[in-house]
Amino acid sequence: MHAWPPSSDGGGIGSTRGLRRQTGGIGRPAGFTLPCAPKRSSCPLQQLALLTNSQGRSHSATTEFMNSVLIYSGGLDSTVLLYHLRAAGHTVHALSVNYGQRHSCELMHAAEICKAIDVPHQTADLSAIQPLLAGSSLTSPEIDVAEGHYTEESMKSTVVPNRNMILLAIAAGHALSIGAEQIAYAAHSGDHAIYPDCRNEFADAMAEAIRLCDWSTVELSRPFVDWTKADIVRRGAELSLPFAKTWSCYQGGDLHCGRCGTCIERREAFDLAGVTDPTCYAANAPSVSDLRANDWRL
Q: How far is CA 274 from CA 232, 235, 239, 269, in A?
């Protein structure tokens, strides 16, 4: 396990068109000399430098004491990002959104986690727009949640139309109203294939739109953009994350179903990361050994 001094952890920067593609990772190796990052006079933040660790994860040093609005679902990825930003010295304002999602129980988990670590948390109630976002299994009760691995074609049914643009627009308004320097969300490399609004091109365009929407500068940060889900689990373990308190399952039942796309991805990530999964799954969930033997397909 690597040391994580706040001064060398958390949100880095450096990408095209103003998008902060930070990839917070592990501490810098002994004897490593931090190179100077090029100056960007238009940026109100201190310059950042990109490091790479022995596991291949990239890591960016960042200025401490930054105000960040985090789009926070209470799920595994965004909870790791919450702890990751706090470890870097950020003041985090967690923002959840109720858009009428089937698994709205995630909002309760988000509130409980934030309360336990004394992080300000607000929930924007947009549940009235649920009928406007129909056609997804997450917003249309009559559509069954697909089971299996995220790489399967059926997983497209979990795409909520334009969800990330809506969430980012709300977060941008909140960030501007409180004077935050950045908006952070936990899109990672595994999201790109299935979710159009997690693609780099989409985030670049949103970063530019956020830059143009106000006189103040708010940057868009995706620290995990080049990380795998397993990398995120490893980082969570390094931060002693309460994994059992996070919620991933799209079914929104009393227990994780262990069969939907996000449950399979969660289980695979823990297994690949070599971290014990404390999640309670439903009785009919397949075993990890069976999933592994079947290449993580049902």
A: 12, 12, 15, 8
Q: Over the chain, what is the mean pLDDT?
A: 82
Model confidence pLDDT, tens digit, residues 20-38 = 334 333 333 333 333 333 3
In degrees and rounded to multiples of 5, residue 52 shows phi and psi of: -130, 135
Q: What pTM does this model have?
A: 0.80
Token pair 């988990």 in the structure block, residue: 109
Instruction: Give me the pLDDT at residue 36, please.
Output: 34
| Single-letter code of the amino acid located at 103 | H
Q: What is the DSSP letter of 162?
A: T
Residue pair 48/200 in contact (Cβ under 8 Å)? The answer is no
Beta-bridge partners for 68: 92, 182
In the chain, domain spans: 8-22+47-243
The class that CATH gives domain 8-22+47-243 is alpha beta
CA atoms of 263 and 252, how far apart (whole Å): 11
pLDDT in tens, 82-106: 999 999 999 999 999 999 999 999 9
As a whole number of angstroms, the distance between CA 41 and CA 47 comes to: 10
Task: Return the bridge partners of 91, or none.
Answer: 67
Cα 19 to Cα 274: distance, rounded to the nearest angstrom: 32
Q: How far apart are CA 219 and CA 230, in angstroms?
A: 26
Q: Where are the beta strands (DSSP E) in 153-218?
A: 182-184
